[in-house]
Amino acid sequence: MIPYDQLSKVNLPYQADFEQAFRDFLEKGWYIMGEGLKKFESQLADYHGSKHAIGVANGLDALILAIKVLNLPAGSEIIVPSNTYIASILAIIHAGHQPVMVEPSLQTYNIDPSLIEASITPSTKAILVVHLYGKCCDMDPINHIAQKHGLAVIEDGAQSHDARYKGRLAGTLGDLAAFSFYPSKNLGALGDAGAILTNEDVYATSLRSMRNYGSHQKYQNDQVGFNSRLDELQAIFLSIKLPYLAAITAHKRDLAGLYLSNLKSDFILPVVDVDYEDVYHIFNIRHPRRDALKAYLLENGVGTEIHYPIAPNHQKALAPWFEGRSFPISEEIHATTLSLPCSACHDALDIYRVIELMNAF
Ligand SMILES: *Cc1c(COP(=O)(O)O)cnc(C)c1O
User: Fold this and answer.
1) What class does CATH assign to 245-359?
2) Ligand 1, atom 7: nearest CA belongs to which residue?
3) Is the distance from the beta carbon of residue 194 to the nearest atom of ligand 1 less than 6 Å?
4) Which atom of ligand 1 is nearest to the CA of 88?
5) HSE (CB half, 13 Å, CA atoms) of 275?
6) Could you tell me the distance, in angstroms and rounded to a whole number, from the CA of residue 27 to the centre of ligand 1?
7) Vertex 134 angle, CA 186 and 82, to 5°
8) Residue 172's pLDDT is what?
């Protein structure tokens, strides 16, 4: 069996270091906001050449807090791609604003910059870009539009640790960036974790307070805050893994390269472009008989996933925000996309086996 992913195997190389760190953690007895969190935050900021990294409880909270810290008028419109994982849209709603869905490009699966301006109204205050599957959005035109209309740009980098656009890292391409370290992400914790990156001192100060009950000083609360601290133990684990991120990326790129050069032309492959250094958080192909292909691979011992089976405009929870509009490109992607094994737990032989099976489909 070639599973889609296997996290126990993904984390095996770090196990001895995790165990040692856990013993130190037990001995120290400092469980919340200790040295481990400080260290991970400064490592993460340095990695990106960002001024500040603020650890929070998970990726959804990172998005909510990144939006909240902008202090936009209640009910502002925020532009977001119509095919994103639901968290990006939920974050806008939880922050008290209105998501305005814009279709992606059928080539990159990321928000189509040429469709953004038509959705801007006097209430539009921000664009939430999502670097989906490990490919950055086309940020030059997006930042140009944002500047022209005075909009903030927030990046959802949950799937794009280490991805680059024109040489610049995801997480450094807007005003604020939200990351998730959910266990299956390219940089994954052993539980929930997230972070926000920004170069703005004012945002960073406010975010550090917001994630901790609106408090900079114990029992003194200046803001209506949250409890969204990045768990100390998860920060320690992430600190151990972060130095290997480049190796994780290289491994996934190698596996993706095998698919890209060996899969037959029946499958629509991810676009490769010199301006985009993709990290293949998800290696997806598209095929009109996607469900039959998925069943065939499973019969032959290969696990696959669909990211995502239900388009956001068909999610019951989001019905009020999608009324009366159709999203044909988003639906086309949801109907035809299939995610292939492409994880740190796989080797080249696994991928050749998947290719052989797929080329015989
Ligand atoms: C995983 C993910 C999130 C949410 O992260 P959590 O840590 O699970 O809250 C947000 N956006 C995208 C695009 C994601 O893939």
Assistant:
1) alpha beta
2) 59
3) yes
4) 11
5) 7
6) 33
7) 125
8) 98
